Amino acid sequence: MGEHRIPRGIVAEATARTMFTLTRHPPAPELADLVEYHWVLRWDLRGKPPHEQRVLPNLAVHAAFFPGASGVYGPAHDVFSHRLEGRVQGLGVRFRPGCFRAFLGGPVSDITDRAVPLADVFGPTAIEAAESVRTATDDVQMVRAIDNLLIAKPTSLSTSARRAAEAVESIARDPGITRVAQLCADTGLTTRSVQRLFTEHVGCTPKWAIRIYRLNDAAQRIAAEGDPDYAGLAVRLGYSDQSHFIRDFHTVTGQPPAEYARTTRADREHAPDNDRT
Fold first, then answer.
1. What is the bridge-based pairing of β-strands 51-55 and 115-116?
2. Segment 3-40, tens digit of pLDDT
3. How far lies 29's CA from each of 4, 132, 256, in Å?
């Protein structure tokens, strides 16, 4: 078994560290089953060119409380890009994959690859919470405002939601799970049951979930090593051949592995020296 993995996938991280600060905070104890963490983002680019930040797709639903970019963002199949400019602070909530249906009240697949207004999910008090985040003087105030918002919406995890979350945890713990059949063996569920759980509670197919985890692993390894042995990397990730790995990597990241490696290498070489994280 491997250690628990959380796909994050900040692209061009060396440059990103000079553009914004990112801190993560645990949720209130009452929310521990539902929320992985809160993330607080700040940037001050006044008098500087805007920065386009890309993030690799992942399974989690996020609730974002940012001026001009608030909303509930479903699981994504494509790279997410956001333009940073001016001076902004905000908070995001990363929900545990499999656990957001308790808030949504419908299949998570309904919001896959799209965003919905905060008020549609959390009611009109979400607007007040977003304003509290905007005017907060520290992270503690931000986190408290959003914890209170989430706690105020009665939620409980159904048995099927817990099974879905546990299935995702199986993938996160064990990089050796590279096929749906292995996930079924690990969870004791049938293929049909796993597929139904993922559609209802995760918002994607189990095959896509497995792909996201192993290709985030690949992106991290390429970023760390620069130009690894791609054939060997494909084997370690459970691919039958290198060409299949390259196609999958391109689908998830928008770049072939070699191009991603060049982009990462150039990012490290040309990142500004004034690292503000």
1. unpaired
2. 567 877 888 888 999 999 999 999 999 999 999 999 99
3. 20, 21, 41
Candidates 244, 237, 199, 204; CA nearest to 58 is 204
Phi, psi of 39 (to 5 degrees): -125, 130
SS3 call for 41: strand
- Residues 83, 76: contact at Cβ < 8 Å? no
Whole-angstrom CA distances from 249 to 78, 97, 136 are 12, 22, 40
CB count in 10 Å sphere of residue 88: 17
d(C-alpha 163, C-alpha 169), whole Å: 10
pLDDT digits (tens, 9 = 90+) for 106-125: 999 999 999 999 999 999 99
CA distance 267 to 277: 16
- Distance of alpha carbon 120 from alpha carbon 126, whole angstroms: 9
Residue 131 and residue 29: Cα distance in Å, rounded?
Answer: 24
pTM score of the predicted model: 0.91
